[in-house]
């Protein structure tokens, strides 16, 4: 039989099995629908019953409806590509592997869940250690139709005469396919070195390092899905937090987890970790370096002890016909005394009232002594403590403080200089205060960690009435991501940090607060780092992990994203900033070398338009135009005439973690110049393309390796 006829025959065999699976899926769906309907009927009956029975019936109804809805949701989410693999063992029946475990009415296995131990051989078996797998088959479906199959023979000597083998390389076929807007799951083609990481034990800290395109993100997300499946009891209730570098990135990966049926996972970018804020703007590198530094903790701690800008500078209150007065200096003394107890200011309001009353009593006692009168101290404290004018003074003198408000105070350079004395340099103070001085400016990503630090240092504001938010702002300025948990929830059972090489020390502290009881999966590549002080960040990271054990580390070494031709250029540019073994090995060749075009600043716009057009014509999937952060708007305008939703304009820092079929990189030397770790940022930008890369450069500085 010819190769294509064998393939057709094998596809037909798989189609028969896939058809059975979808028939069963329809039955399970119908059962879940029926259960939901029964649940609702139970609820209706409850109205006429006695109270106790009514309550238990309503509970039962809720549980039935809840479970039925969950089942329906899972079945629907996994519908596409439900079956994707098959294992033929020496003697036993074949095992079909898929996104869900499904049994027929007799409880026989139709599909084994990819996370179940019985499916592990699908990922773990190799020719050296075949685990009794003779043939491994990847099945590619669209809807209910089998499109293609690809086989791997692991035990050639055991292949029976009637076993056919077709195709070559499901992985390479998957890698060659066009990229869309969102990351695809890799569940059908997970490689063994990746599977080892996905299935690593859940406790402690699991670190995943590896160069660009080695699948670190894909692996971390599949690990989250695996852990929730295998350890649902330990991890399911509190949930998993996944932190990524940017909103663009979290959108890009957002489809991977729901398509694996995981709803217990919360995705947040670093600009969204604090409830109520969704920051997307980046500060210039030097400013971000100051804002992320641990030194800012000291500055903030001191700033919140300073007199609030609107606080009255004198107190006058009449008591029994006598005016009791406290001067600015005396009030400051009282303030210092209250802060001396190191209580967060919002928790110290009672103490502040007491200290103020004591100071007033001292004053009254002194007057009484001068006049030779008797004086009842307790009576004064009680009387004044109940007076409205005393409380009116107190709320402005010791107001409830909100993180946003205190951070904005530091836009006043003199105030910041007081708080930063001996901690920041004068140029740093000038830079920081200028950035915080604009009253209407949006928060930047680096500000969010400062606000979160302040939230903790200030202590919680008094409880608000229902329906009001008590986020970082007063009143809240922007809506945050949809929230299903209490605000500032910090009891996640597992935290995944992606692009971890870029977290500043303060960002580590912010994320650590959300994982106080969690185990961690931490993903990163030091060579792609844009944070200039790796030692300080590493110390903050170690502090975040605390005494958690064990700590295991995996390194992924194969670059699945870039063609070898593209990665060669990237590796050349970063040489001197990376050890040889920190660079991955790119497996695919396309024969397309990256194009480097010399452009004059005068024709940059037309050159960009031309290159973008060429790339859109050349690939089926997405085209990314990457430029320096401060050029994004301009390049966006140049390309505004292109009506093609495959085209994206993205700044260097926002390109982290993303990928496109083709990339146009505009003025690479500007990427090197804009950042304190410019060459590493350039390396990130050069490793975003899967197939084609055009670089538009008006000089050669970016090519000079090892600078
Ligand atoms: N086993 C696999 N099968 C199919 N595709 C894969 C596999 N592993 C990785 N890929 C693909 O390779 C690309 C890179 O993966 P991913 O983004 O997870 O890499 P990364 O290591 O996080 O990269 P970076 O450090 O550049 O962000 C993605 O398109 C991913 O789908």
UniProtKB/TrEMBL annotation:
Region (Disordered): 460-487
List of residues binding ATP: 210-217
Molecular-function annotations in GO: 3'-5' DNA helicase activity; ATP binding; DNA binding; hydrolase activity
UniProt record, GO biological process: recombinational repair
InterPro entries from the UniProt entry: DNA_helicase_UvrD/REP, P-loop_NTPase, UvrD-like_ATP-bd, UvrD-like_helicase_C
Keyword annotations from UniProtKB, A to Z: ATP-binding, Helicase, Hydrolase, Nucleotide-binding
Single GO cellular component term: cytosol
Residue ranges annotated for the UvrD-like helicase ATP-binding domain, each copy included: 189-563
Protein name, as recorded: ATP-dependent DNA helicase
Species of origin: Saccharomonospora piscinae
Lineage: Bacteria, Bacillati, Actinomycetota, Actinomycetes, Pseudonocardiales
